[in-house]
Amino acid sequence: MRSIITLLTDFGYESYFVPSMKGVILSLNPNAVIIDITHAIPQFNVYKAAFTLWASYKYFPRGTIHVVVVDPGVGTLRRAIAVKTRNYYFVGPDNGVLMMAAEDDGIVEIRAIENREFMRPVVSSTFHGRDVFAPVAAYLSLGLDISLLGPRVTDPVRLQGITSRVSRGFANSAIVYIDHFGNAYTGIREGELKILGLEYGDELRVVIPRRNVDLRVRFLRSYGYANEGEALALINSEGFLELSINRGSFAQRFGVEEGDEVEISVIK
After folding, report:
1. 111-158 tens-digit pLDDT
2. Which of 17, 126, 149, 188 gives 111 a disulfide partner, CB atoms 3.0 to 4.6 angstroms apart?
3. What is the DSSP pairing of strand 80-85 with strand 65-69?
């Protein structure tokens, strides 16, 4: 059976970790097509991995199996899970990394991966990507019924800040992604702007308590409407409220990282 399996990890490209996972998959399903989304996620950065998955999963053919291994809790009591959605499967640790994408597509069921029949015979306490997630993905690509993996999960871990709290004039969220240019994506979506009461040209107060950031920016349509070096807010191509600097890096200037809490107030 020819199926697509994607891999998204923080393993880098210079080690044996990724080829080991591919070898396990191909040993079980030689016809699998394995696509690398990226292995350059910063180490342990679950937020960046979750957003990267969300931004890319939907462009793959229906039935694709997405495997994510950004797993700082490997070997602890954290669960390994497989998620069936309307159009895809997601396999990885139960640390929130899968949920933004899975909920976006519509969850059908979630199963804890406990059945040793679908793992490698010896499971390392530090490399579940090879010994648990890769074989499970391969078996799913061969048509395995997800219910055979283990008990149903009804309380998956979700990342704080992916779902924002938005009211008239104020929003509380988190930095969910920082891109190559240093633009900081908040968890506030374009559809929530009416609730917030935000319009182009408005001034915003942006507070990031952990970084001692307290500044005012304008909400503009794109970078070029701001002066060079000026901080601004805009709606980006993925539909999120983004904090940016025209021809500069917001993340570098203010030292922000994924997961940082952010408070947005509209100044009228």
Report:
1. 999 999 999 999 999 999 999 999 999 999 999 999 999 999 999 999
2. 149
3. unpaired
Q: What is the dihedral of CA 153, 155, 160, 166, to 10 degrees?
A: 120
Longest dimension (CA), the chain: 63
pLDDT tens readout for residues 227-250? 999 999 999 999 999 999 999 999
C-alpha to C-alpha distance for 193 and 8, rounded to whole angstroms: 31
Residues 6+ apart with CB under 8 A from 75: 125, 126, 128
Q: Specify the pTM.
A: 0.88
CA-nearest of 265, 267, 224 to 244 is 224
List the CATH number of the domain containing 183. 2.40.30.90
Q: Decide if 160 is inside a domain.
A: no
Question: Is residue 109 located within the same domain as residue 202?
Answer: no
In eight-state DSSP terms, residue 210 is G
Same domain, 9 and 107: yes
- Three-state DSSP class for 192? helix
Task: Report pLDDT digits (tens) over 200-215.
Answer: 999 999 999 999 999 9
**Residue 45, both tokens:** 């950065």
